[in-house]
Structure formats: structure tokens, C-alpha cells
Amino acid sequence: YRTFNIKSETLTPGDDFGMMREVLTRRFSRLLKENPQSVPVPEHDGTAEDEAISVAEADDAFPAWPDLVVIDGGKGQLSAVVETMAQVGAAHIPLVAVAKGPERNAGQETFFLPGKPAIKLPPRDPALYFIQRLRDEAHRFAIGTHRAKRKRDMTKNPLDEIAGIGPRRKKALLLHFGTVKAVQRA
Questions:
Q1: Helical pair 16-34 and 75-88, crossing angle rounded to 10 deg
Q2: What SS3 class is residue 70?
Q3: For residues 91 and 89, what is the distance between their CA atoms, to the nearest angstrom?
Q4: Residue 74: closest CA among 102, 45, 44, 107
Q5: Do the Cβ atoms of 69 and 93 come closer than 8 Å?
Q6: SS3 assignment, position 151
Q7: Is the full-model pTM beyond 0.85?
């Protein structure tokens, strides 16, 4: 489990493609810098799977190159990710985008692969169940993380950032002035 805080000031809230670009750029640029020896080397004869030459696997924050990147989204998200992965030098990693079905019905997901036609798995396929659980867990984790961050931000007080003001002084200032804005004006 890993979360990324969006740092770009130029992104507008809700820019899904821009946020995906930023996260993937940061993640794979760092992986390429920290673990360049495990970049998969494709076989040219087409008979064998891509192999990874792995030197250091467990001592870095991003120790291993993924075998597959699963994207929550459709063709648009896949296109943005393909472009980003090519820019950062990770175009060799297989990608698949998973789009929810019509009216967001579970069991009707469509899978998009770069340069290939879309795939739909049968509704009771075990692989489909696995991908659904994977997506649902990613959503659960992201929503929980977002809620915790929002809760922390709501309880923050600008007076906490001022050196030398402890809980008692903060309480006294708020009792005397009433609000943080009144403290700032004073």
C-alpha cells in the first residue's frame, strides 16, 4: 500500500489524467533512479517471457519493477498512462485498464490493453472476481486515507504552527479573541 500526495500546483482538482501522470512519473522515475539494474530486458526472439536482471530487491522504497500495472479507468486513462510510461522509460511494463460496466455494474467490466481490442470476461469468471476485489480494496484504502487526511486537516489550527504557543496559550488566545481570524487581526 502506497499513497501519493499530489504536489503539482498547476493541476485543477478532479484532473484524473494529470494526477495519474504525476503519480506514475514520480513512482517510475524514482524506481529507475534507485533500481536501474532490474529493468526488464525483452527477449528478441519472441519465445520467452521478459526477464528481469535483479540486483537489489529489498533495501529500497521501490525495490522491484512490477510485472503488470492495473489502471482503474478506461481508454482515456490507458492512453494517458501509455504516454507517461513511455516518457519515463518504463514502456516495457505491461498495462491493463479496467473500466466499470454500463451503469457501473460489477461483473460487466471491460479490460483495455494497449494496441489490442477490448476484452470482457464472463460474469462468473474467477479472474474477474479477483480484479473486482483488487479494485474494491484499492478504493477502500484510498477512501480511508482521504478521510483520515481530511479529518486531520479539519482539526488543524493555524495557531499550532506558531513556535512558543502551547495548548494553554492557544486556549487563552481563543477565549480572549473568540476566533483565529480575530487573533490574526490583533
A1: 30
A2: strand
A3: 6
A4: 102
A5: yes
A6: helix
A7: no
The C-alpha cell at 82 is 501509455
Cα→Cα distances 120→66, 117, 126, Å: 24, 10, 13
C-alpha of 155 from chain center: 25
Q: How many CB atoms lie within 10 A of CB 107?
A: 15
Sign of CA dihedral 105, 133, 94, 20: positive
- Could you tell me the CA-to-CA distances from 13 to 7, 19, 63, 152 in Å, in that order? 12, 9, 31, 19
Three-state secondary structure call for residue 61: coil
Mapping DSSP onto H, E and C, the string for 101-133 reads: CHHHCCCCCEEECCCCCCECCCCCCHHHHHHHH
Span 70-85, pLDDT tens digits: 999 999 999 999 999 9
